[in-house]
């Protein structure tokens, strides 16, 4: 049976394959996930085109590649998307994912840019030792611009006698070039071009561009999974493609599997922990630095030794990041103890996964102490905007397998309350809000990612005041909001958000954030006016084609004709002030009295709220994860042997995480009451 990629239909609009991150809150204690069918890029009522399907058939004949293999390789690279000729965040192009990376694209980050991605403990007690000059004293590795893995597009273009620009922008030429390169790899490895799809293991492995056997094997297995099960979808630009299922496929692994050059020497298993990873990912473990950075006893990096979750620091969420650079560059940064930054896992553009911090320990990845204590950080190779505007399918696939493994291990619901981006993590105090990160950025396809995580499909529809809705814009050409990067326009591309307005009209002012000052409304880094895909919000009002939600202490509007960008959730407890206006917190620390007798000092500004944020009486917000008492893990000294070191301070005050704006925040339980959102109309 051919597998369909999250398909659904709805009256009045053409729907085809909207994997989505729309997730329902089933109860207060346990949250259930839903995904929403996504519209194709076809005009309403128009039949999808089949030109690209014919191009695959023609290229398969021309270069003697089994059509099922060619289709499956492309599907596992890009899901057959052309991305309108724009590059991925790592330099892949068009439907075959061929690479073209210039030396200028690999320039070293400036000192200012590097510093923006260091000092991520989110703990003022740790950050007071951070020394910017010292942190920049160690260079990050720069990728080798001559690496053939970065120039597969040029090599493939030469094979078909086409200009590289054609292969970048023309889907037909991309398919031809990819087929020619795949055939060259297969013939070089086995001396022939077999008619049997199952005998193309070698060529597929080499096409993966993975320098590691595990990564190449993983890609081959995914390609053969698609051949075996079949695939079918309509692309963002309206191309309908089908890969017929071949359940009788019998893959044959050759004695020698060709790999791309550039493999790193394997880690010494005697001195390196075993990766905490699903077997199918063939993960490596490359330890982040745990070392002194200076002479002070508490001046060390790049993570806190802890005992999670057995020691009381339960793991509640998984935070998705992008590296703002290369895979090796991130490894270098996390092995510099002066950087004060780390993550538990790195996921490369070729799907490789490397663990750097053990799950029991607290990585410094989110710049928020409470989030770091109770989460796993997963970095992805690429940039939040720069020149690229999509992530590779190999990266999404591996990340989803990893996150499902982690969710099972720690009982984390697979929904958008628990699987969040760094852009949804708040600053801990007033001085930290504006500098908080905004990765993975507007081009991370949350709809598709949540579908890979297994969120079931749900319907969209018009909301009513008092209902809880999931905001679910399509990640297709139907949703290409204007964006800039540093004030400069970027190419039109699907994005993972919708714009908000202060009143129900596109001529109305867009909202600002009191911490961001005069940030340009269209910059990807300005999250004040962008509601993220998958976010749950309480409807404040509706007016014709517009929906208002409670967002950042006010009523804000987005264009939502017919409810096309919302999924109405079941009647669910939501949070509203008991009375008056209440404070909003950027972290959930224990009350001052809880530190008594622990040997741990009361933390600076321990109970301080975010003074520019409030929630007024009559407003209501979705709960964004489990309620919990405030707590603080005190690592203390590097050695962990001084009084109070490695102690968990637990308070008695209960906090509720909420969807406050683009980011989550916390409310004190004593300040709020639960009410039930209005049930969907039947």
Summarize it.
This protein has 682 residues and is α+β, with helices and mostly antiparallel strands. It has 15 helices and 33 strands. Strands 7-13-12-15-11-16 form a six-stranded mixed beta sheet, sandwiched between helices.
Description:
By secondary structure, the protein is of the alpha+beta class. Among the domains are: 49-107 and 142-263, Lysozyme (Orthogonal Bundle); 577-676, no CATH class. The chain contains 15 helices and 33 strands. A six-stranded mixed sheet has the order 7-13-12-15-11-16, with helices on both faces. It has a five-stranded antiparallel sheet with strand order 25-24-23-18-26, with no helix packed on it. A three-stranded mixed sheet has the order 1-5-6. Strand 5 (231-234) and strand 6 (240-243) form a beta hairpin. Helix 1 packs parallel to helix 8 and helix 9 (201-207) packs across helix 10. The two termini are 33 Å apart. 54% of the residues are buried. Residues 6-44 have low confidence and may be disordered.
Q: Kindly name the structural category.
A: alpha+beta
Main sheet: which strands, in order across? 7-13-12-15-11-16
> What's the gyration radius in Å?
25 Å
Proportion in β-strands:
15-25%
Specify the biggest β-sheet.
6 strands, mixed
Distance between the termini: 33 Å
Low-pLDDT segments: 6-44
* Overall mean confidence score, pLDDT: 91
Helix content: 10-25%
What's the CATH architecture of the domain at 49-107 and 142-263? Orthogonal Bundle
């Amino acid at each position: 049976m051919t597998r369909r990629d999250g398909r659904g239909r709805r009256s009045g609009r053409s729907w085809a394959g909207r994997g989505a991150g729309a997730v329902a809150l089933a109860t207060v204690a346990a949250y259930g996930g839903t995904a929403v069918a996504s519209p194709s890029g076809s005009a309403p009522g128009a039949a999808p085109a089949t030109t690209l399907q014919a191009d695959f058939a023609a290229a398969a004949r021309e270069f003697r590649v089994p059509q099922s293999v060619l289709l499956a390789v492309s599907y596992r690279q890009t899901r057959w998307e052309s991305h309108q000729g724009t590059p991925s965040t790592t330099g892949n192009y068009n439907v075959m994912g061929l690479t073209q990376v210039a030396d200028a694209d690999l320039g070293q980050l400036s000192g200012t840019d590097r510093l923006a991605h260091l000092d991520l403990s989110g703990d003022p007690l740790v950050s007071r030792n951070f020394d910017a000059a010292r942190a920049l004293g160690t260079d990050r590795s720069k990728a080798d611009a001559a690496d053939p893995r970065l120039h597969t597009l040029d090599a493939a273009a030469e094979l078909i006698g086409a200009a590289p620009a054609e292969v970048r922008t023309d889907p037909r030429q991309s398919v031809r070039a990819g087929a020619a390169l795949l055939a060259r790899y297969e013939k070089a490895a086995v001396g022939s071009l077999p008619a049997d799809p199952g005998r193309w293991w070698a060529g597929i492995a080499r096409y993966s561009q993975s320098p590691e056997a595990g990564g190449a094997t993983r890609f081959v297995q995914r390609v053969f999974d698609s051949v075996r099960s079949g695939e079918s979808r309509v692309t963002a630009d309206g191309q309908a493609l089908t890969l017929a299922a071949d359940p009788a496929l019998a893959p044959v692994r050759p004695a020698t599997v060709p790999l791309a050059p550039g493999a790193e020497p394997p880690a010494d298993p005697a001195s390196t922990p075993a990766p905490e990873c699903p077997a199918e990912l063939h993960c490596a473990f490359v330890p982040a630095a745990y070392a002194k950075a200076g002479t002070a006893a508490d001046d060390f990096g790049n993570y806190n030794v802890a005992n999670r979750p057995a020691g009381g620091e339960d793991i509640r969420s998984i935070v998705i990041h992008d590296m703002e650079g290369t895979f090796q560059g991130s490894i270098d940064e996390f092995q510099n103890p002066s950087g004060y930054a780390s993550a538990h896992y790195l996921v490369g553009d070729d799907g490789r996964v490397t663990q750097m911090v053990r799950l029991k320990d607290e990585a410094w990845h989110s710049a928020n102490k409470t989030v770091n204590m109770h989460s796993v950080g997963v970095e992805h190779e690429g940039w939040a905007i720069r020149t690229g505007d999509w992530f590779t399918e190999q990266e999404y696939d591996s990340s989803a397998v990893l996150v499902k493994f982690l969710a099972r291990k720690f009982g984390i619901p697979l929904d958008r309350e628990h699987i969040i981006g760094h852009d949804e993590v708040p600053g801990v105090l007033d001085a930290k809000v504006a500098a908080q990160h905004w990765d993975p950025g507007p081009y991370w396809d949350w709809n598709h990612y949540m579908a890979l995580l297994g969120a079931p499909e749900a319907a969209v529809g018009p909301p009513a005041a008092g209902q809880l809705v999931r905001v679910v814009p399509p990640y297709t050409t139907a949703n290409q909001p204007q964006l800039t990067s540093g004030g400069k326009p970027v190419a039109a591309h699907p994005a993972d958000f919708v714009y908000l307005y202060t009143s129900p009209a596109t001529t109305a002012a867009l909202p600002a954030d009191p911490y961001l000052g005069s940030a340009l409304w269209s910059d990807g880094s300005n999250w004040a006016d962008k509601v993220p895909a998958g976010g749950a919000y309480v409807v404040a009002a509706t007016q014709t084609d517009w929906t208002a939600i409670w967002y950042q202490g006010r009523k804000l509007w987005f264009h939502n004709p017919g409810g096309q960008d919302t999924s109405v959730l079941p009647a669910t407890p939501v949070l509203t002030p008991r009375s008056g206006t209440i404070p909003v917190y950027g972290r959930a620390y224990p009350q001052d009295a809880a530190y008594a007798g622990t040997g741990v000092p009361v933390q600076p500004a321990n109970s301080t709220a975010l003074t520019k944020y409030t929630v007024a009486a009559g407003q209501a917000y979705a709960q964004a994860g489990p309620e919990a008492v405030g707590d603080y893990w005190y690592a203390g000294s590097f050695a962990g042997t001084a009084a109070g070191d490695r102690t968990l301070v637990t308070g008695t005050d209960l906090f509720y995480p909420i969807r406050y704006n683009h980011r989550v925040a916390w409310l004190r339980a004593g300040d709020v009451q639960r009410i039930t959102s209005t049930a969907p109309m039947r």
